[in-house]
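Weekly sync, protein design subgroup
Attendees: M.S., D.O., the rotation student, P.L. (late)

Item 1: inverse folding check
M.S. brought a backbone from last month's batch and wanted to see whether the design step gives back something sensible before we order anything. D.O. pointed out we never logged the input encoding, so this time it goes straight into the notes. Structure tokens as presented (75 positions):
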């Protein structure tokens, strides 16, 4: 199963990456979202983009994080 990764957001040294696993015909079968830090690699993986954003915002608190209200169209 081919796997592709696309960085969706970067802030404060953290990234949210969409991981897409495709079948033999190239059709997406599974999408997950990983939370990465530039110095330590992947921290966690989530089924939903908004869950990755919420986890990132918890890590960054009290620094400003990513807005959640505009993210419902991502995916």
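Designed sequence read out in the meeting:
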């Amino acid at each position: 199963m081919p796997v592709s990764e696309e960085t969706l957001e970067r802030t404060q040294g953290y990234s949210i990456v969409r991981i897409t696993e495709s079948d033999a015909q190239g059709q997406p079968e599974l999408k997950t979202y990983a939370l990465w830090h530039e110095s330590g690699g992947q921290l966690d993986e989530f089924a939903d983009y908004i869950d990755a954003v919420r986890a990132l915002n918890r890590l960054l608190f009290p620094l400003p994080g990513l807005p959640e209200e505009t993210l419902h169209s991502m995916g």
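Discussion: Residues 46 and 52 are 6 Å apart (CA to CA). The longest helix spans residues 49-60.
Action: P.L. to compare against the previous round before Friday.
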